[in-house]
Amino acid sequence: MAAFPGDEYERRLERTRARMAESGLDVLLVTDPANMNYLTGYDAWSFYVPQAVVLPLGNEPPHWVGRAMDAESARLTTVLPHDRIHGYADDYVEHPVKHPMQYVAELLADLGYGRGRIGYEGDAYSFTARNLQVLARELPEARLQDAYLLVNWVRTVKSPREIEVMRQAARIVERVMRVAIETVEVGRRECDAAAVISEAQIRGTEEFGGQVPANPPAILSGDNAGTPHAAWSDRPFLPDTATCLELSGCRHRYHCAMSRTVWLGMPPDHVRRLADATAEGMEAALSVVEPGALCQDVERAWRETIGRRGFSKPSRIGYSIGLNYPPNWADHTASLREGDTTVMEPNMTFHLMLGMWMEGWGFELSDTFRVTESGYELLADVPRQLFVKG
Amino acid sequence: MAAFPGDEYERRLERTRARMAESGLDVLLVTDPANMNYLTGYDAWSFYVPQAVVLPLGNEPPHWVGRAMDAESARLTTVLPHDRIHGYADDYVEHPVKHPMQYVAELLADLGYGRGRIGYEGDAYSFTARNLQVLARELPEARLQDAYLLVNWVRTVKSPREIEVMRQAARIVERVMRVAIETVEVGRRECDAAAVISEAQIRGTEEFGGQVPANPPAILSGDNAGTPHAAWSDRPFLPDTATCLELSGCRHRYHCAMSRTVWLGMPPDHVRRLADATAEGMEAALSVVEPGALCQDVERAWRETIGRRGFSKPSRIGYSIGLNYPPNWADHTASLREGDTTVMEPNMTFHLMLGMWMEGWGFELSDTFRVTESGYELLADVPRQLFVKG
User: Fold this and answer.
1) What phi-psi label fits residue A265: left (phi over 0), alpha (psi between -120 and 50 degrees) or beta?
2) What pLDDT is attached to residue A390?
3) Does the ipTM surpass 0.95?
4) Closest A-chain CA to B71
5) Which site among A32, A47, A146, A203 would you substitute to test the B interface, given the most B Cβ atoms closer than 10 Å to its Cβ?
6) Domain coordinates of chain B in residue numbers?
7) Which CATH class is domain A6-154?
8) What are the Cα distances from residue A222, in Å, to A265, A358, A363, B121?
9) pLDDT per residue over B315-373, tens digit each?
10) What is the architecture, at CATH level 2, of domain B157-389?
């Protein structure tokens, strides 16, 4: 029932172990739910309580540890032998004294790592300050080492099977974006548009059912069109306003993201000018993508191009994207921005996100691309234009 | 544009400051997005990067600090004076060297807390191990003190206005559950049911538009009916199986949760017996709810009742519920379980969640209730029965 066959996970474990060896780790404590899924297949909405994959450096299967009621999900969704699945009793959950990391520490000690070099994901959402404090207290002789992003960097280069799943997500987002552009209309409530868009995201296609993306639909309209992460409201769409749509298809927790902008009415010249400059900047950015290019090269091509048109953007223009859970679909590794010297490799995948948030209005254009042997491939295909409606 | 009028936030700040004074704190660093929203109104999907509300003990407005691109959301959604909104530059985000907590630490020092007693939310998802390490490094003379759940406990007793919003969420979940029971059908894909359910959640009612709940629809069917947090799949619903539906209405990020179970076909006797025992256990649990009762009393009444029918449940039967963001709608304070001696007060709200996950099948029944002056009030009204279809 895992999303991929066993040999896919074997290769992921091998590549992760190679980085563990470089970092001098005996064992890695993986708490990021996307990384747990990546290494074992584990997929459940249980990451609001502490849980982990324990990956020994040696050539043996990892362990899953989590709440007892989720152990059955581990049996159903992972490729792990059942004796590697460890559930803790329910009174560890949100208890004033007991903490699940005590159970994890005991497991690590039982496995012989009480004096080992243990990697942890120090800046992952799922690894709280107290998690580290409890581990340090319970394993006073262990050497705890921050290995944040170790697995994320492994994940940054996708396998052919992962690319295939992202292409399935691309088929979904193509459908979603068409539905979204259709549904944004003067007088309709923003929440009704969000409802229809979410329906399309989760239904997916006849061949590929969808999942709930790590970010909800961003529907930035009217006053909110300059606020990239605003929530939708009960308000209706208004004439003569922009609506920025940042959406994703999601398949087996893999994302293909896309942004397009709808203008209700006749767009004024300054909106058309920004739309044209952004599209031109996107072409310029994409034209430098190839193996060996640096992430900062892509941003520079964009910046110089829109600069000639009199525009600028103070934030990064994209990031590595793939497998993730809420609150965010990014891999948290490479960014398309000044100073990022990550070297592009085939099968890296990026969300090139050109969000132009102006004072009181905005324009967005974004696509997800794969680095190929010689350039780039856009995963999904929707016209890159300002959509003008009635 | 905040969800509540200003005096509502004033009262919340007062109650929070009273607890800060008891804990000897000069200032509280609030990073849990639900707590940030609770204290200021701030509402945006920006909590995948570090952000905080800084609440001084003295009678002055709090500060919002976050990514520069989200400062406009802070201006639009909070009751804060604009000079209290601080945005950090984009290159702090996911940077190999710079960390947003350096900016937060600088702000705390500028505000005069370099040697102060600073509370932090040590076990909140949003407060990583590295967040604390950076704060401790940058503020070597400050006294950093774990104040996890301080605001959550304030939130546990709802105001009349919060109850009103939870009643709006209740109107939504009544509609959602009817749609869900209708859509579960032999041969329909699980993802198609999830799509229709999500649509209903987000559309809300004509009066009250919906939001995306902190937990996605749980649709546990067939093999998954014994796995509480499993994802839906592309598989069709099968005859002679249970489907457990754990859903919520969500309004202004407040939740009213509910679970019901559908049986496709003629339910066997052991299913009916469990359904009857669970309903009887729920009545018994609710009958002891009143101000002054302890949370553990509710669980004991349940346990004794279902025990007489030969059933048991190894996990807690509920928790305080209200305002939250993904990954979870619980307040993370009081639990309905053995050993929890929280004293019930009027306007506490609980999700009484009777999930009976058996080997390869399951049954769920749950409702959200409010503690009243003399007993309890169920917020939403859907018949508490096993729904038998086709």
Assistant:
1) left
2) 82
3) yes
4) A227
5) A203
6) 6-155, 157-389
7) alpha beta
8) 13, 12, 11, 35
9) 999 999 999 999 999 999 999 999 999 999 999 999 999 999 988 889 999 999 999 99
10) Alpha-Beta Complex (3.90)
